[in-house]
Amino acid sequence: MSAPAEAVTAPFRELAAALRGPVITAGDPGYDEARAVYNAMIDRHPAAVARCADTADVVACVRFARAHGLSVSVRGGGHNAAGLAVADDALVIDLSGLRSTTVSPRSRTVRADPGCTWSDVDHATVAFGMAVPCGFVASTGVAGLALGGGIGYLSRRFGLTVDNLLAADVVLADGTLVTASETEHEDLLWALRGGGGNFGVVTSFTFRCHDIGEHGTVIGGPVFYDIADAPAVMRWYRDLLPSLPEELSGWIGLLTIPPGPPFPEELQGRRACAIVWCYTGPHEAADGVLEPVRSFGSPLLAGIAPMPFTALQSAFDALLPAGLQWYWKAHFFREISDAAIDVHVKYGGQLPTALSTMHMYPVDGAASRVPADATAFAYRDGGWAGVIAGIDPDPANAGRVTAWAKDYWQALAPHAAGGAYVNFMMDEGNDPVRASYRGNYDRLATVKRRYDPDNFFRVNQNIPPA
Ligand SMILES: Cc1cc2nc3c(=O)[nH]c(=O)nc-3n(C[C@H](O)[C@H](O)[C@H](O)COP(=O)(O)OP(=O)(O)OC[C@H]3O[C@@H](n4cnc5c(N)ncnc54)[C@H](O)[C@@H]3O)c2cc1C
After folding, report:
1. In the chain, fewer beta carbons within 10 Å around the N or the C end?
2. How is the beta sheet containing 109-112 ordered, strand by strand?
3. Pocket residues: Cβ below 6 A from ligand 1
4. What does the alpha-carbon distance between residue 102 and residue 250 come to, in Å, rounded to a whole number?
């Protein structure tokens, strides 16, 4: 439905008349809601938010922004911690209303709209016992996660999300629509597999799906150890993980046990080292595969059980609702050295707030067998993507969580592999982006020159045209 033309100011009346979805400008009811993103630390004032209803709306937005010399930002799930879905004075191409999926159990593929969250895609595929390698939570947007890499429970077994991105429809900077696949615009597909939102607005994603668990039921959940056991747990985990079958993955973190059910009252608020496991292989082999995990140490709480993949994926969503203050910093790690563990013990013992946390996600197995230059995502050395997240509901604590994350990150730098996962970065300038793409950076800048020579799409982890 078109927005009433008088609801918006010139020149956006012209845009509103051209779109099926509404255009929201400053002063309109709903403007503050429309400009808010997941991270409440982000407080930007775009010129207008265009809630696109279809691909034609996206094309109209791109043409309108060019004609009026406006910059654009693109919003998928709005989860990016750097707030790259919105920018001051920009036209926000808001895709969050486009959330349908089409699954094909026969060809083992799923097509997803650009405003889908992973809960939408998991819902569509797990019903058929399949899943696309995605992340560790369901509430993140498909678009941003898939374009930046996509590290999750299935990465060890089936690769990153980008390794399973088969095709994308893309509105380019000149307003034309192309399909990038392994047979058309192959250079664009290569760049979209990790290069983020630099190359155009993706209006449709097609992914490969994989059979998981027993008809989508996996065996997983968290195991919590006392924070005092963190050094021993981290050493055991780093030695064990590479030897485990790829059907089993687990990320490790330092955190505070949440203050509510299902956690026992006596453990709530206690600092812990946790590993969240996910086994996606045949259930008759599960006991053998999980035996080393189940027999290690003296956990405070072990919650490994059969559950639908959708349940594991959404297990942490309620703990991390939209509207919290977030500041995070990231590294890649080839190893978890004893010296790095000393740093984790120090800063993990100083978690500044109950939600602040450190996580390390494995990037090994199938993800590390893909050659580093086969997709834009360059870090394929094995090891972990680490993220230190300072989180709190209270804006008064924003400075405290930020300082802790920066100090922790700095202290880990000598033990890191260089670069970081672009989806775990704040707005940190070009140097870290270049470092993260390693040998692929120059090729990305060349593809950028071909598809977006004016750097029209620059509200992202930006790669200026070569
Ligand atoms: C709680 C939480 C958990 C997370 N867990 C994981 C995880 O397990 N694994 C993982 O890999 N990552 C994870 N992330 C990081 C996540 O991948 C990024 O935050 C990602 O940017 C989110 O995508 P989005 O669509 O929600 O983002 P948005 O904020 O909407 O957009 C992010 C960027 O993508 C661009 N973009 C969005 N849509 C499009 C489109 N259709 N076409 C072109 N460009 C587009 C935007 O311009 C922007 O630059 C997590 C983030 C959070 C906050």
Report:
1. N
2. 101-104, 109-112, 201-208, 165-171, 177-180
3. 38, 73-81, 84-85, 95, 114, 135-137, 140-141, 143-145, 147-152, 196-197, 201-202, 320, 423, 459-460
4. 30
Q: Which atom of ligand 1 is nearest to the CA of 201?
A: 42
pLDDT digits (tens, 9 = 90+) for 319-353: 999 999 999 999 999 999 999 999 999 999 999 99
Task: Give CA–CA dist 128/144, Å, rounded.
Answer: 25
What's the distance, CA 347 to chain centroid?
24
> Which whole number is the average pLDDT over 260-284?
96
CA 193 to ligand 1 center in whole angstroms: 13
Residues 151 and 163: beta-carbon distance below 8 Å: no
Helix, strand, or coil (residue 233): helix
Q: What angle do CA 116, 120, 121 make, to 5 degrees?
A: 95
pTM as predicted: 0.97
pLDDT digits (tens, 9 = 90+) for 393-432: 999 999 999 999 999 999 999 999 999 999 999 999 999 9
Spatial distance between the Cα atoms of 12 and 9, rounded to a whole number of angstroms: 6
Tokens representing 243 are 């030897």
Q: What is the Cα–Cα distance from 9 to 254, expressed in whole angstroms?
A: 49
pLDDT interval class at 262 (50, 70, 90)? confident
Q: What single letter denotes the amino acid at residue 375?
A: T
What six digits make up the tokens of 26? 């400053």
Q: What separation in angstroms does the CA of 122 have from each of 49, 191, 208, 309?
A: 28, 25, 13, 8
Q: How far is the CA of 32 from the centre of ligand 1 (A)?
A: 21
